[in-house]
Amino acid sequence: MEYSSRESLIKYFEDEIKRMSDADIAKLKKEIDADKQKELARMELEVQHQVSLSLGVELQDVKEKYRMDVNAVLAENAAKLHERRTAIAEEVFSSVTAKIRDFVAGPDYPAHLEAKLGDIRGLFPGETLTVIARKGDTAVKEAVRKVLGPDVPVVDDDAIRLGGFRVHGNQSLREADETFDFKLEQKKEWFYANSRLFIKK
Fold first, then answer.
1. 62 assigned to some structural domain
2. C-beta separation of 188 from 89 below 8 A
3. Residues 12 and 73 both lie in one domain
4. Residue 71, SS3?
5. Given pLDDT bands bounded at 50, 70 and 90, which one contains residue 1?
6. Same domain, residue pair 46 and 96
7. Which among 154, 150, 110 has a CA at the least distance from the CA of 132?
8. Residues 100 and 114 placed together within one structural domain of the fold
9. How confident is the prediction for the chain on average, in pLDDT?
10. In 3-state terms, what secondary structure has residue 107?
11. What is the pLDDT of residue 51?
């Protein structure tokens, strides 16, 4: 798939995340609610039976056991939720990472880099710049040469695994991060904040 702008690429990531996670989230919610209702119904019958046989202190003991059992069910559901959310995130972001790698290897990547470098240049007026990129990313080096000039150094950074670049202002010591690694990490944070995975009480 070809992307004409950073905005369309980000929109694609958001749509892909939502599409892949909504069905699994709905199914998980239904399973958790069913398990919770079944367990609560069982415990309520047990409590009612115990109440009919107990008075005073024994009744208090039964209530405490009921409270502990409910807490145990909630804790178990929370663990299931965490496990499932982790699995969904790994599946979604594995797919998105593959799409990013395809984009970086495709014909639209150099134009994307040149456009982003053109935008970045205005953020560092009058400064000398250093560009940081993924090791072996010749597209970044060529885009820097075209947009910023041959005197701007491009430094390798093994921490950049997907693509894009960072620009460091040598006088202000500010940085602009246009790496796909950084953008993907932001989307992960968005996913966890907006995935709507929760257990209804």
1. yes
2. yes
3. yes
4. helix
5. very low
6. yes
7. 154
8. no
9. 81
10. coil
11. 62
pLDDT at 171 over 60: yes
Tell me how far apart the alpha carbons of residues 124 and 130 are, in angstroms, rounded to a whole number. 11
Question: Residue 134: pLDDT band by 50, 70, 90 thresholds?
Answer: very high
pTM: 0.56
Query: Are both 68 and 121 inside the same structural domain?
Result: no
Residue carrying the six token digits 């990547």: 109
Same domain, 136 and 95: no
Structural domain count, the chain: 2
User: Distance between CA atoms of 201 and 188, rounded to whole angstroms?
Assistant: 26
Helix, coil or strand: residue 166: strand
More confident residue, 157 or 58: 157
Question: Which two structure tokens, joined as six digits, stand for 121?
Answer: 């240049």
Report the CATH number at residue 161.
Answer: 3.30.2320.30
What does the DSSP assignment read for 109-157? Answer: HHHHHHHHHHHHHTTSTT--EEEEE-TT-HHHHHHHHHHT-TTS-EEE-
Q: What is the residue range of 190's domain?
A: 6-106+185-194
Based on the domain organization, do 100 and 132 belong to the same domain? no
Q: Following CA atoms 77, 78, 83, 86 in sequence, which dihedral angle do they give, to the nearest 10 degrees?
A: 140
